[in-house]
Design a protein that fits this description.
Length: 310
């Protein structure tokens, strides 16, 4: 296996700076080795997401031509990278470095790609359980991979469940925030059972008469996100200080997205919800205090929460 690791790290650092200001801010809190591995992993995740959604660095979603062929290429290059074979693609080679250095279980990477395959099939969730399975594939699996990057034993199922919960919280927040953008792209991640429960006809949820009811469902998403965020905070107690600091900061920053969506009610999609620089800084400071006292973090039970298949 031959990689120019320094070049891959430089590419990853540039990718994260342009692709996610929130993740870039949180990753700076890791100690150097973990930070580099987190950035390398992010680069692969970002590349796969862009391929699946026909976008660049998370922006400009467009219809994807030959989706099945692109998914096949994604799977092939991912398998090569996990096997330690250079692919010639910096994003996939970055995954290869992370896998070699951490013993990353291959199934998490393939679980993520399975989530992209659901979108390619224009899949829609019928029930809340369907929604949570989707959230696992596109975000919970990433939480598990990040935990391994942070040094969590791949066999530590309890801590990995908490890491998965953080990914679930992030995705639920994203879904609540992006309901309008997803609708414009022909997607809807609100379970059809939820829509029927509040009498919103299929495909009509963004129309003005249904905004108050849609706001109720967005609040439900935010409430679910808060439950998984609380569980993830409990899991941070098992991490080293710098990793716990980054996790707790990210939890607060993304948690604020869900809380702001709920607060805005029917006006949540008039303009995109975002966390300001001052709010991010406030969470960085708060998270440092929480991480220093992580042994005393509330022990929140996972009872009643959705759990990944182990």
């Amino acid at each position: 296996m031959t990689y120019d690791r320094a070049a891959l790290v430089a590419h990853a650092r540039d990718t994260i700076a342009r692709g996610s200001q929130s993740f870039a801010a949180a990753s700076k809190l890791f100690e150097p080795a973990t930070r580099e591995r987190a950035q390398l992993l992010y680069t692969w995740c970002r590349a796969c997401d862009d391929i699946a959604d026909g976008q660049e660095l998370g922006h400009g979603m467009s219809p994807v031509q030959d989706a099945s062929a692109k998914l096949s290429l994604m799977r092939t290059r991912t398998s090569q990278a996990l096997a330690g074979e250079p692919t010639g693609d910096a994003a996939f080679d970055s995954l290869g470095v992370v896998a070699a250095e951490t013993g990353l279980p291959a199934h998490y990477a393939h679980d993520l790609i399975d989530g992209f395959a659901l979108d390619a099939q224009e899949w829609r969730p019928r029930s809340e359980d369907d929604l949570m399975r989707y959230c696992y594939h596109v975000a919970g699996a990433v939480g598990c991979m990040m935990a391994v990057v942070m040094g969590v034993d791949p066999d530590d199922a309890d801590t990995l469940d908490r890491a998965c919960d953080l990914g679930l919280a992030f995705q639920l927040a994203n879904i609540a925030r992006d309901i309008g953008e997803d609708d414009a792209a022909g997607r809807c991640y609100l379970p059809t059972e939820w829509l029927a429960e509040v009498d919103i006809p299929p495909g009509e949820h963004m129309k003005p008469p249904y905004r108050p009811r849609l706001a109720m469902l967005a609040r439900r998403l935010a409430d679910r996100a808060e439950q998984y965020e609380a569980s993830a905070r409990t899991g941070a107690a098992a991490l080293p200080f710098r990793s716990a600091w980054a996790v707790l900061a990210a939890a607060g920053i993304y948690g604020d997205i869900a809380r702001e969506v709920a607060k805005r009610g029917p006006h949540a999609w008039d303009r995109r919800v975002a966390t300001g620089k001052s709010d991010k800084l406030a969470w960085v400071v708060t998270a440092a205090w929480q991480a220093a006292r992580r042994d005393s973090l509330p022990a929140v039970t996972r009872e009643g929460l959705w759990t990944r298949v182990r």
